[in-house]
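DM from R.C. (forwarded with permission)

"hey, sorry to bug you on a friday — could you get me a structure for this? deadline for the figure draft is monday and I only need the backbone to look sensible"
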Amino acid sequence: MVRRIEAAQSTRTPCPPVRALLAHDDVDAGIDQAYSVQSTLIARRVDAGARIVGRKIGLTNPKVQAQLGVDRPDFGVLLDTMQCAQGQAVDITRLLQPKIEAEIAFVLGADLDQPGPITEDDVAQATAHVVAALEIVDSRIAGWDISILDTVADNGSSGLFVLGDQPVALTGLDFPAAAMTLRQDGAVASAGTGADCLGNPLTAVAWLASTARDYGNPLRAGDVVLSGALGPMVPVEPGSSFTADITGIGTVAVSFTDPGETT
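My reply, with the result:
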């Protein structure tokens, strides 16, 4: 499975789903196996020189969970090689089947590794600041034909990410009410609120903190956490530009090259 996913990335040729190779008749066992595949993939990338800088949370919308027949979010690992500078053009050939979504990124100022339930208050106290973020999701699985097992094994369908440059303290923020508008080439392409992310992005990060700890890799000070989409994903087209605005938190922008353009 690891080789199949790596080959899809290196050859830029999406591969068949991997779920049939996992314990797909037992969701819990299958998910544990899929996270094991993810861990191996990440370890190989770290061995090749990448550095872990945080996590991303997926499947935070109950409607998407229902589509995949699951009752939980999932997570992937963020590497320094995935981060793109705000406002600069991303080489679209780095990606296979990209889509984009706007999120709130939490930057931790303290570890979240305490025993017992990790609460929203714990997350708030451990967070140094938040910023607006864009996650450019991608899938090595052909046609995005994914189950939760496929996306977990494929590092949460991670691609790239962009962080805004306006750090905001949590004091006074109403996360569920935060309104997001994502524009593509100036036209509204997606919209939503913090309530669309498990009811509250703090809830999503608390879930991640507990789950990551239980898998033996707790969240640490300095980690960036992409807390989950605030609105529907939008397909990325060559040459397109995106700007997200999240009330009370700020804006973030990215554009993509068009390999077909001639100079």
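R.C.: lifesaver. The chain has one domain: 2-256.
me: no worries. Residues 27-47 form the longest helix (21 residues).
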